[in-house]
Specification:
GO terms for molecular function: RNA binding. This protein is about 50% helix and about 15% strand.
C-alpha cells in the first residue's frame, strides 16, 4: 500500500472502541497539506478525501484552530459544501471532528461519522478526545523515527527537488484518491501559503508518510512522457 499502516489500524480500533455504529476516519495536516491517513470504512474515507481535496470542512477547521467541530445535522451545516454533499451521498447525518496537536506544524483530526441523528453524548465526546490524543502521540513517534532515519541514511538529501516533489505528489494521490494535477496543486498551494519551496513541503510530507509504492504521477497525466 505504501502508506504507514498505523493510522488505518487506529481508525479501525476507534470504531470498535467508541461504538454507537460510528464510522471513523483520521486526517493529518502537515506543511499546510491535509491527507486522509486511515479510515474504518470506505464511506468515511470518501468524506475525508472530499474534505482534503477542497481544503474545507469540519476537520480542516478543527486542525486549524485546535477546537472540535460538532455537526449535529450535516444537512444544516454551512460552508463545507463538498464535504456535506459527500456525507449525504454516503448516508451520514451527523458528525464530529476532534483535533489533536502533534507538533507546531502537524495536527491530526479524528473524524466520527454517524448515520443516526446527533449521538454525541458528553461521555462519547470525552472518549473521542482521549482517542485523538492517542493518535497524535502515535503520529509524533512516527515523525521522530522518520527524522532519525533520515539523519542516519541521508535519504532525502540524496533526492533531487523534482524526485522529492513527485514522490510527495504520488503520496497525496494515493491518500486523497486524486489526480496528479490536483496533488501538484495542493503542494504548490501549500508552498505559496507558507512561503517555502515545494521541496520543503514534499520532504515534510514524506517524513510523515511511508511511501513505498506510491503511484507514478506521470501515469495519471497523458501529457507527460
Amino acid at each position: 500500500m505504501g502508506i504507514a499502516s498505523f493510522p488505518q489500524e487506529l481508525a479501525d480500533r476507534a470504531a470498535t472502541i467508541l461504538g454507537h455504529g460510528l464510522e471513523v476516519s483520521i486526517t493529518m495536516r502537515q506543511a499546510g497539506v491535509s491527507v486522509r491517513a486511515g479510515s474504518s470504512t470506505d464511506a468515511a474515507a470518501r468524506c475525508d478525501q472530499a474534505e482534503a481535496l477542497d481544503d474545507a470542512g469540519p476537520c480542516i477547521d478543527a486542525m486549524e484552530d485546535g477546537g472540535s467541530r460538532l455537526v449535529p445535522s450535516v444537512e444544516e451545516s454551512v460552508g463545507w459544501e463538498r464535504w456535506a454533499r459527500q456525507c449525504a451521498e454516503e448516508g451520514f447525518v451527523s458528525s464530529v471532528a476532534v483535533p489533536a496537536i502533534v507538533t507546531a506544524d502537524v495536527a491530526v483530526a479524528l473524524n466520527l461519522y454517524s448515520r443516526a441523528p446527533d449521538p454525541w453524548t458528553p461521555e462519547l465526546l470525552t472518549a473521542a478526545d482521549a482517542y485523538a490524543q492517542l493518535v497524535a502521540s502515535a503520529v509524533g513517534l512516527r515523525l521522530e523515527l522518520a527524522v532519525l532515519e533520515d539523519s542516519t541514511a541521508g535519504f532525502y538529501r540524496d533526492m533531487s527537488d523534482a524526485v522529492a516533489t513527485e514522490r510527495a505528489v504520488g503520496a497525496i494521490m494515493q491518500t486523497n484518491q486524486c489526480s496528479a494535477d490536483e496533488a501538484r496543486r495542493i503542494v504548490d498551494s501549500a508552498a505559496r501559503h507558507r512561503n517555502v519551496s515545494p521541496r520543503e513541503v514534499a520532504e515534510s510530507l514524506l517524513r510523515a508518510l511511508v511511501v513505498e509504492d506510491a503511484p507514478d504521477p506521470a501515469d495519471d497525466d497523458p501529457g507527460r512522457s
